[in-house]
Fold each of these.
Amino acid sequence: MQNKQRQLKRLLYRVRHEYMTMNNVVLAIAAIIAVSWAWASVQAVQRNYQLQRDVDDKKRQAKLIQLQTDNLQFEQRYYKSNEYLSLEAKRRLGLVEPGEKVVVLPPNSAAVKAESAKEDSGPVKTTVAPAPPPLQQWLDFLLGARSGGLQNS
């Protein structure tokens, strides 16, 4: 037991006299200050980054709202224009301007059926001829043959 106490006392003595010197204490305090300063700097950079991101988001939102406002103003001017009033009068009331002629087709005429068929049909389908095999493409290229819909010269 005394041996352990003696070893402990020796260890404490050695720590006090070898490691707890003034130079080591000043160095430890300087290290603590440097680490705390670095940590504060990192936190400041992170906070500035977050704030800048928030500012950028707000600027984007403001620009979007400005674009929406401009669009609504354009629509408002269009709805107040004589062109819109004329088109709506033609569409809703069936009015015509001087010199215009209205042609009313019966619902079962060929022109009406063709127009409704165009509206009902989906996108136009086209077929493309399959490309020749790679070997044939190389031979055509090397021998100077033109392919792909081009005419031979």
Note: The mean pLDDT is 83.
Amino acid sequence: MLTDLFVPAMPAIRQEFAAASLMIQATMFGAMVAFGLGQLFWGALSDRLGRRPVLLSGLSLFVVSGLAGALALSIEALLLSRMVQGAALGASVVCARAMVRDLYETGEGAQVLARGLSGLGVIAIISPLLGGVLMDVMGWRANIVAIAMAGLIGLVMVWRFVPETIATKSAQATQWRGLKANYIDILTHRGFLAWSLVALSTYGGLFAVLSGGPFIFLRFLDVTATEFGMAIAMGSLSYLAGTLICRRLIPKRGLLGTMQTGCTISLVTAVWALIVGWFEIRSVAAVLLIQMLFGFAHGFHQPCSNAAAPGIFPEKAGTASSWVGLLMAAAGVLTGLYLSASLDGGLRPYAWGIAFWSLILVLAGRWIVPRFTSSGLRQRS
């Protein structure tokens, strides 16, 4: 969510690098592809070497590539730096999910994730506000420096305070035979795939909100960068509220029941988004409500699915986490391709894209996950 700092800067980057619209789209696309594929590398490596060295390496690369992006003199250099930064970011995401599984059983791990994501929600509120102000006052390069500095703070905190969490390292985790066996085991487990569908769908919708939002708010609804930062912050506030409620519901309703509460909110989101798109309601409040509803539901879906899917494989949590991340990134890439091809059509493609992912969440949460988790496909403890 710290990369939300970058979002308000995109129109200014287009202005500095003339006729760069397609390259800006390529920047987002390249960073997302690198983010997804990089997780496969970091996940297996964390099972082999441990979480701590992978975290330190990934964060170091994140900082260096961020500073390189701030110094970029061409759109091609910016694209390359963002791709490297996306790959580096994958290390933190993979290790965070795997470390939760190292330390906690699945249900408790989801509560811990929800608690951590509440903190992330606070950061997500601050980031776009700060990004909008930095953009208006100092220009887009300041945003990229701020992202790199956030990574540096994370690097120092991991180095000083985060211990190794993996109990047993696997020498076979990065060898082809062991890697192949792990991949087959993970990708043929229907419970893993069902929970991963929830994870990728909620991420696909989030990517639609974050990547399509700048176009809709800044160009279609003609708000300022600072006002857009405030709009994104409001969506993050609703996400924070979702995580707070989620972590209190899990002990009472379990992962499935809590996630299905999120599905009810997703259904409301889909209906409202379809209405806004169908009638072309060109209102900041109407679009903001879509984002806030989706963010609220995301606060339920993300911790439950991100704990449940890797939680099935405690002995190879890093590798399982990397596949969850890759599937989520794939949803982001597909969403980005859809938006880049359709956003010139105005509000309707944006609203309907969010409605699509919200309806998939309802389908996955109400029918697919219950079917696979109640038919003998129990999670391994």
Note: The chain has one domain: 2-161+173-372.
Amino acid sequence: MKLRIGILAAILVAAFVLATSRNQSGAKGLFGIRSASNSESLWSEPATVRGAGLSSDELNNIEIYKRNKEATVNITSIVYRQNWFLEIYPQRGAGSGFIIRKDGLILTNNHVVAGRAPEISVTLADASKHKATIIYRDPANDLALLKISVKRDLRVLPLGDSDSLQVGQKVLAIGNPFGFDHTLTTGIISSLGREIADETNRKLDGLIQTDAAINPGNSGGPLFDSQGNVIGINTAIYGPGGNIGIGFAMPINRAKLMLTSYESGRRYGRPWLGVEVAPVAGDLAVELGLPAEGGLLVQRVMPGSAAEAAGIRGPRRTVIAGNFQLNIGGDLIMAIDGQAANRTDVLSRAMQGKKPGDPLRLTVFRNGQKVELTVTLGEWEGNV
């Protein structure tokens, strides 16, 4: 009996020793409690973190930023303004710009450097500061050309084509919002051919609308396509404080026209037709006795304009239905330079490559038939 008790005790002792001497990396105690030295980690990492890599879209963003950030500059200015009491006072401003020629030519917005006797400083990507001078302005399109003196060749940005843009395509912006230099934001083209009024109540038309974040300090900076080409100059935001997802850029082809003007030594103003239009099509067009394909119905012809000189006819009466008002009886513009006028921005897009004095071919519907007109464009001379 005593022998059996002794054997049983020995077996229990051996089992206890075996259980408590297991490898500490994976065993629990007899009561299922893990020792403190083997507690589980407080965090874990994804199993694929080392092999996931970057998406093609991320790589595209990174490539464009690395390639183009050096040619994007920070612009600060001190301009002298006059208050109601005719006192002159200095005012500091800030914006962005970008280098288009290796000897130091820089494009930006005119409002970034506007004012009396501006003192302009340009900060390059290497943090060096340079005094800049204004060598050309195009206030009608809110554009300005600056020059800095450098002893080395600078990185420049390629200028793309803003006439072939599509709503929905990806865009990227680099600038200095709120003084945070070389900030990259991304988005898409939200719309084309937008018209807004600037702070002087001057109309800016044909603008690119984007949801890429644009804030104070971005003005004058480049808007890129997915190839890294500049297709616009960031110009304005909607709302007083900062980005709410609605920003506007001046198409780069407007700047190309300004550069052509500068290089040729001839100053070209902004081309002007002198009409206000409203799009009509479908059932509404048929109801008004117009072709179903519709077009741009002339709402107003400005006195002294190219449109008036060419004989474009304005409305004869107004119809009102609820809150809807339309001036009718005037010409319906159905095509511009051979392109169907089936978009609200078709007129502003047609004007982008034009200069005052250039011809504009219009197909209009008048008195039940189509009429071909050629208009010699005038020059914008202010708000009308």
Note: The chain has three domains: 71-148, 162-264, 271-379.
Amino acid sequence: MSVEESLSNQWEPSEGAFAPPCLPARYARFGTFQIDAERQELFQNGLRVRMQAKVYQALLTLLSQAGNIVTREEVGKRLWPERLPLSLDANVNTAMNKLRQALGDSPEQPLYVETIPRRGYCFIAPVEFSDVADLPGAARGEDAVRTAPENARAKNGNQPLRYTLPVGLRVATLLLTGMVVGALLVLAWYSFYGRNHKAMNSTKDTSRPAESRLFRR
């Protein structure tokens, strides 16, 4: 069985298997995300995040022990309670990578899931548990879905929005700016020309008496 097939299997515990991680309340909130444990869904800003069943269970496993280190073996037993896969490390790594993609997280600069070398993983973001829904989408059960690539782009959505002027208004603004600059240039030229013209006239006036004396001789 491939890693993808192993992750895609639905989590259906059998008798004697590990029980799903239990959260202190129905809703768990961290960052812009909210989990509805009763409906087993993850929301971001009211939009449902699509993720595989095993990836969701990996998130619950970390959230149930937020702030503590969860070993790879414990993650593996939670995701595959009946029989651990032969390539446990590869399966756990793939599950965590997909979880980071869904959260828009990064292993180099983690906001939510931190890898503890040679030990396991730790959920490092503050988590708030409540029995009251905070995000409207989770409360109403909206069908809007956000995929993992959209979550990666949404990670940068905290930056202030930039307002872009319509094309027509931008063209009119450019034309008006050009007219103002042109008018200022014309005024500057007339001012420069007027000063030079007065200077030339004053020079001619001062030279006339000398010329008249020459002609009289």
Note: The chain has two domains: 3-158, 163-217.
